[in-house]
Design brief:
It is built from two helices and 13 strands; from the N terminus they run αβββββββββββαββ. The chain has helices at residues 2-30, 180-188, and strands at residues 32-36, 47-52, 56-62, 65-73, 76-86, 92-99, 116-124, 134-141, 149-151, 158-165, 174-179, 194-203, 210-221. Strands 2-5-12-7-8-10-9 form a seven-stranded mixed β-sheet.
């Protein structure tokens, strides 16, 4: 009887340990939500969206590192992934990107200058009320200072935010982290709970220029 009690206690302790491991593993998994898993040569659920011409997107590798390469010549098309993110749980957007060169001599607040060597943006879907759809664009600007925010010249439902600017870091990988919940609230003056899609775009249709950019993994975290 005594031996059976020890065995039961051992089994229960093992079950408790396993439960704790599963709980903390799930907690870690929940605190990081991968949206773009390009380092694993994965483009699952990323769909093309054309505006004017086609930017060429390919998975490529350099020095044993895989990433997404975008080449645009007087074109504007993006990749979009529909994935709902609860910003109250994982508000931080993390990504890496690199440009061969920023675009030049653009007035980005006007329609003919609304081009960017690299941009990542988040979308809050208005559903059937499409006019309520809002987007915040994080861009590699040609000349706007970092953290500058302005209205998109084509629609009031989109805001632009310069993260990198000019050619100071051209040809270098840059790691970024933004609190999307705070940025959306600041840009649009309202509270958000979810975003519904994430998009990537390298576009040069308005200026007629060319650009090459590289995108690393994109993911959300709780801190």
């Amino acid at each position: 009887m005594k031996n059976s009690t020890y065995k039961l206690a051992f089994l229960l302790s093992g079950f408790l340990l396993l439960s704790l491991i599963c709980f903390f593993s799930q907690a870690v998994a929940d605190s990081k939500i991968v949206v773009g898993n390009f380092s694993q040569n994965d483009m699952s659920d990323w769909k093309p969206h054309n505006f004017q011409g086609s930017t060429h997107y390919t998975l490529t590798k350099e020095n044993k590192r895989s990433f997404l390469k975008a080449v645009s010549q007087s074109a504007a098309s993006g990749l979009i992934k529909k994935q709902q993110i609860d910003l109250q749980k994982t508000p931080y957007l993390n990504w890496q990107w690199k440009v061969e060169s920023a675009l030049y001599r653009l007035t980005e607040t006007f329609k003919n200058g609304d081009d960017f060597a690299a941009r990542i943006y988040v979308v809050s879907d208005g559903g059937v009320f499409f006019w309520n759809t809002l987007a915040l664009n994080y861009v590699w600007s040609s000349g706007q200072k970092s953290n500058t925010v302005w209205d998109n010249p084509f629609t009031a439902n989109a805001k632009m935010m310069a993260i990198e600017s000019g050619n100071e870091f051209k040809g270098q990988w840059r790691s970024e982290k933004r609190n999307v919940l705070a940025d959306l609230r600041s840009a649009f003056g309202k509270d958000f709970r979810f975003i519904d899609a994430i998009a990537i775009m390298t576009d040069t249709d308005n200026s007629g220029q060319s650009a090459t950019a590289y995108y690393g993994d994109i993911y959300f975290t709780d801190k």
